[in-house]
Amino acid sequence: MKDFASLFADLDGTTKTNEKVSALKRYFGKVSKSEAAWAVYFLTGRRIKQLVKSGQLARWAVDEAQIPDWLFDDCYDMVGDLGETIALILPSTDAHAEGSLDYWIEEKVHKLRGASELTQKAIVLEAWNNSSDLERFLFNKLLTGAFRVGVSQQLIVKALAEFSGIEARIISQRLMGDWNPTPEFFEKLIDTDGGSADLSRPYPFYLAFPLTENETLLLGPAPNWFAEWKWDGIRAQLIKRNNEITIWSRGEELLTDRFPEIVEEAAGLKDGVVLDGEILPFKEGDVLPFQMLQKRIGRKNLSKKILDEIPVVFMAYDILEEDSKDLRDEPLRVRRERLDHVLSTRDKVESQQEFMQLQLFAPCMTQLSPALRVSPTMQAHSWEEMKTIRDTASAMKVEGLMLKHRESKYGTGRQKGFWWKWKVDPFTIDTVMVAAQPGHGKRAGLFTDYTFAVWQGNELVPIAKAYSGLTDEEIKRVDAFVRENTTGRYGPLRTVKPTQVFELAFDGLQASTRHKSGIALRFPRILRWRFDKPVAEIDSVDSVSKLIPQTHYPNGF
Q: What architecture (CATH level 2) is domain 2-144?
């Protein structure tokens, strides 16, 4: 644990990439493969399921620190993180943790699973009392599943690549998907001979950067770019290798059993194929709101009723592997030809008029089967023409356009230059703040999470919660307002006088029976604080309801 704590201190103590990479390389060269495997596991954002209830940890810490509950609660409100609060209130010790990181995980954390509360308390107290302040802090963070440090997965990959002498893209793929942090895994991770590959493993996803309208002219001639609809679904890779089908989300979650209709249709694919695309809720020729997909994913059991109510499609827009050959270094124009070859069954369009209808109004008619479809590519002679296409996005129930250079390879992670997301302008409404509660982490101790309302008759009805969009100075001013204008307290939540108007931006909305307003907003965020607008003139439930899309695709899909 001492080596891992030293690594954490090194990583947390610098913002320089080269210094972080050097610290990681020193660490991997010093510790055992077992410890290195666990370190990579945690540093890449993976977590152990919390085995002790937060309330129990807090209670044990209060007893050890011999402080009243109210003082712990106040400290927790100020710090904003349970593990850090506990580490701060416990009496300091001169002890240092004995044993490596893997020893602490396997001999302490894992032994909490299924143990009685008495046994769990004994293990946790022994760990607290026999570790330094930093080691105790790290133990708490690992125990609660809240461990974070200022390194990205790409930085971890860079360090492992330099440490092992293996290409970063190979390390990236070996880290994808499900794996167990064992010595054998770490050995295969840095094995220059390759070792046996997990055939279900996806490729690292290539991600796009946001683009503004003013930046389009910097991209060069518009004909050099493919445009695609920016679908609002779950980014996924569909893999068929050795006649086994797997579906992975961008978050490296295995989704195969959640989408049986896609698996069934993928049986018709030839072997050795990996497709990149979007899983969309889709019924009767119409894309359904993303929230419908969330409703389906949230179900433990997929009944026939839910499958009938919320069917899905896989909208493919890239092919990464064909006949078991990696195609990622091929230009996008070639990959798209291969994708059309693998999935398309329709004849080529015969006229420009038919082409425009296909591209703009029925963009998913190219399909291998009802559940496997090809997202179309569109091209324009100028950026003005491309903007005209983008402006149809709201009617198409998509978020805008993806712009991809025709010659682009399929990269790893977010790389600026060749893939861009050009979203339509968001919806906006005027609301009034009616409640607030403290944030967490760096925002602990400040009221930063706000509830906003609109009119329904003469009553203010909550319509959204948002916490992003304000500057640090504005957050301080809102915090002061909340403290001076509190009208009620409900745990950490405070209701406030409804006098401050804010303009919210959001990406979409739909009718919802779960919300008192009857409306659910997609990605609400604060656009600006409107001192110029009185509360009487903010939006109403009726005016917001008129923004709910009613458009359906002509002639369906």
A: Orthogonal Bundle (1.10)
